[in-house]
Amino acid sequence: MTIIPVPKKIQKCQFETCNYKRTQDFLCAVLESYARACAAKGLLLNGWRNSVQGCQITCPDHQIFSYNARACDRTCVSLSDRDFECTATDVPVNGCICPTRTYLDLLGKCVEASKCQCMLKNGDYLGPGKSTIINSETWYCRNGKLKRTGQPPVFKGMCMPPKVYFSCAHRRKGQYGTTCAITCQIIATEISCIPTKCVSGCICPEGMVLDYDAMCVYPEDCPCKFSDQTYKQGEKMMKDCEECVCRNGKWKCIENVHCPATCVIHGEGHVTTFDGKKFAFNGNCEYTLVQDSCCANETRPNFKIVTENVICGQSGVTCSKAIKIYIGDVLIEMRDATYKITPENMADKFNIQINSLYVSLDVNIPGGHLLQILWNKNTNTFIRFTRMHQLSLCGLCGNFNSDMGDDFITRSQYLASNALEFANTWKEDPLCHDVTEVMHPCDLNPYRLAWAEKQCHIIHSNIFKQCHNLVYRVPYYESCVQTTCSCDIFGDCDCLCGAIAVYAKACLDAGVCINWRILDFCPVYCDYYDTHPPKHNSSEFTENGDYPSHYQPCSCPDNLWAFPKNNIEGSTEQEFLKNLDNTVKRLQEHGLQVKREKSEFFKNSVEYLGHLLDDDGLQKPLKKMESIMKAPTPDNVSQLKLFIRLVHYYGKFIPEQATILKPMYLLIGKGHLCK
Prior knowledge:
single chain, Laminin, five-stranded antiparallel β-sheet, 15 helices, 22% strand
């Protein structure tokens, strides 16, 4: 009786052996294919390899050759869970197996059943003779099986309840096991799955589906996912200026008609407009960042924000060292890590918050528009504008019309062809020199390039992984490298950390709170104690003392999209007192003591790193300032650079320091006069 049609197999055999150089290998493969087809029909062709030269198989030590090789009842795994290895669709193959009454263990050795490991429900293995606790009961690994008083545990196929094990050996028509099992992702994307084969494994019971953590949930309880972040039922997020709510595993979004936009100036002249256009500009003057009343028939603006750019590197690069905000007849000036309001009696009209990292200003301008300024007390400024109705804006921040193609509108209301032509028109003093070339700090300071690239690589690292799909990181990395290269006189950490903070703020605005500062990388001195455990798409603020910390990577972690809040990193005074209390409690809980004579609390001032800190912030250290005044006159370039570094260290206490140091920069710059 013919079980398998022979002619086609003969033709295949002839073709293979006649067309390839290694004839014997292909001949054996064709014959094995035919033998396997016969085995699938229940007929074993024993001995055929011995009758064909070159088709014999040599087995490793302690294994034997068989024409009926199967995993079922021949491995330690099959002893632990027979359904895992034994199915009705298994076809015997020609191969090496362990001798009778021995089994293949996890190391590929043939052992007796008494030396077999046992498979646990979580996928781990228990050594022979060892014990483990399951459901508060002790189970032992005996002869490859878990036993308690001689009985195996009730679970089957390693499934964690409520999951159940599905064996393809016992499937009904139309059942495919784990293949195309319904998941929350399939529900959200509404894609169809076409099964190709049945796969045994753990599946959810009828009426439940797999969520993104491979747990069984009811379809109406499915979470939503966006950019590797999982959101629970009812949680909100913002995407492309739409407010979205998670409902039954799908996003339901409503457009926010009053969506804000942010203009950023940071590092050595890097600007990002309201509409997202990025450019670099190294001008040494005051420049208009943004103002209203831009039309020809409009005269005095209701508000205007000006940046004061000064030379901050030996190569001539400039940085924003002061921000001036004009609102009507009021001037708010931010410089030297503090701010000043003129006239002073208008101070209570503005909402200004200060923490260890930022000065934040919120103000409503005529027309109901919301203006928010976030300044990092150094070179970074974030200008967030929420427009209630159409309003003309202009300046280095662009015109805020959702089209970056026309952002380079000059003061004379024509479209400039490049960033230099555009930016030069927005200088406040017409006597300032025009900028004629774009500087590339890493070309001017190539010795700093490798260090800058290494430090800025944190932007590409897994620390910011949650943000990578939300905010395109390459421009931020490139500006970080250029900014870090430019710091050739002072402030390595200020420049580097400030550049990384810009990307962290962009991530925060996109809905991801990144906990990136650590004790040995951009720490917040005197305000940093620990990091926070992740909580969904944010960082959890703990109040129970488990993670006492003064530093917060963001405020309002569970409501990142709240309007009109401007989410920032840092801490508040209330958080400081709360965490101080938690720290003292934690010392008590662990039986730790501190010496009273070495401890001081609620001091009005303290000296730290050569600075004086008091209730009003960072103050001028009189002794250090006196030493600068009495410093000897430098005799060479090296001494002059040391003196400049000393001045920069206390530069925040020296008004107009950039103007004062400019002649010194000229002495040590390219083609310097000082020898």
